[in-house]
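Below is how a single chain appears once it has passed through the pipeline. First comes the sequence as given, then the structure the pipeline wrote out for it. We keep one example in the README because the format questions we get most often are answered faster by looking than by reading.
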Amino acid sequence: MKYLLMMHTPRGGGEYEYVHWAPQDWAAHLEYWRRLNAELAAAGEFVETVALTEPGQAALVRAAANGTPVTDGPFSETKEFLAGYWIVDVDGAERAYAIAARASAAPGPGGAALNMPIEVRQVMSAPPAADV
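Resulting structure:
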């Protein structure tokens, strides 16, 4: 089963708070992600991971009556925002939760665990074409 693990992080004036971290803290944070992703790949559970730009660069788009795009944003005023996600292919929700807990514990300034909220949702699959 595939699960989407969405990493939410506190905002910081429209930018990621890591821009204010000491370089060694940022390096340790990135190394943690590399190690986690490598372990998931070695276990055959890694499908994809994507990091997103900060919310200061986000826009919400809707179609106007004539079909042209209408944008609203950026959204730096939110309390938390989606920073990135993983897609993992695991045996069930409990394994997805375990991976999410490890992602949540990524180190921040001074090596302290960030304990970021990670939203876990199973990826839906379409019914076979004959059933549609």
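Helices lie at 23-42, 93-104.

See the next section for the split statistics.
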